[in-house]
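testing teh design pipeline on a random one, pls ignore if ur not involved
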């Protein structure tokens, strides 16, 4: 674990560094408050800091106050070193945002105990953050394929439509449905069906640029949002690459399923179509592709056109 030591007095600083290094900590040293603040602003800043209260340039309490003003940064546990032992001074340090304090002079065992307490708190905090992030992923991602789920992709669609309207660009909505997927489950089993869905999802994800998003809507249906689509032809070309790419996927030996996909696509120009209308238009195009023989791409809209295999 990395620990910042901010102490302007050389003897005390070297003593702290020797103790922490002996106990297995990775030590970062600052000679005054300003240098400590610079270290703590770095992306890989230590999560535990030992700050001397009285330092030139910037006192430890001032560094601590600045840390607590940064709500959007990882939490830094602060152990304040001070020779002040008045209750009023200690209250001031805690109110400035310090988590703990240690009164000078102190011995090594006392310092070790305070560091262990800080490390335990940081470990618990990291566990809570990891659990929160895992719950967020579960709430927004499909558990089988890892793609965005139905609710998340609608939120993304609304956000991207707002962005397209501000920037006066267009957004493509692509609906893709695997053909005869029930037959795959019935013939080869649901494990094979799940494998097909996972492989198709991986292919879709690999096909996307940085401005595209992919979701599994449920069953064998997928949705892809493509930002900044310049024309219907560009959207149709993207959808065709997806359709042909899925048809070329292989899932095992000769006896394994061959998969095709039907696609409906629609482009939403700035100031046109709500999020739901854009989905409906692409879904209607998908229905037409299914009705007209499957393994096809159908573009929805006033100038609809289709591409067949």
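output:
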């Amino acid at each position: 674990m990395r620990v910042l030591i901010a102490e302007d007095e050389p003897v005390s600083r070297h003593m702290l560094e020797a103790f922490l290094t002996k106990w297995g900590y990775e030590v970062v040293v600052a000679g005054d408050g300003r240098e400590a603040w610079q270290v703590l602003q770095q992306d890989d800043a230590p999560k535990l800091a030992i700050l001397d209260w009285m330092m030139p340039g910037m006192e430890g309490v001032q560094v601590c106050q600045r840390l607590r003003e940064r709500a959007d940064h990882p939490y830094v546990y602060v152990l304040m070193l001070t020779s002040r032992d008045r209750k009023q001074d200690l209250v001031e340090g805690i109110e400035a945002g310090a988590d703990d304090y240690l009164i000078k002079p102190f011995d090594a065992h006392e310092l070790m105990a305070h560091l262990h307490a800080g490390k335990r708190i940081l470990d618990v905090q990291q566990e809570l953050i990891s659990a929160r992030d895992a719950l967020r992923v579960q709430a927004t991602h499909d558990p089988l394929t890892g793609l965005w789920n139905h609710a998340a992709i609608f939120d993304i669609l609304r956000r991207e439509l707002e962005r397209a309207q501000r920037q006066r660009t267009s957004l493509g909505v692509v609906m893709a449905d695997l053909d005869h997927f029930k037959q795959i489950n019935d013939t080869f089993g649901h494990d094979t069906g799940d494998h097909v869905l996972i492989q198709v999802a991986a292919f879709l994800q690999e096909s996307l640029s940085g401005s595209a998003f992919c979701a599994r809507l449920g069953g064998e249906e997928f949705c892809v949002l493509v930002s900044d689509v310049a024309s219907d032809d560009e959207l149709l070309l993207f959808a065709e690459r997806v359709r042909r790419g899925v048809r070329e996927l292989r899932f095992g030996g000769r006896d394994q399923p061959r998969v095709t996909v039907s696609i409906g696509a629609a482009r939403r120009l700035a100031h046109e179509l709500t999020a739901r209308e854009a989905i409906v238009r692409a879904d209607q195009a998908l229905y037409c592709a299914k009705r007209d023989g499957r393994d096809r791409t159908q573009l929805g809209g006033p100038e609809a056109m289709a591409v067949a295999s």
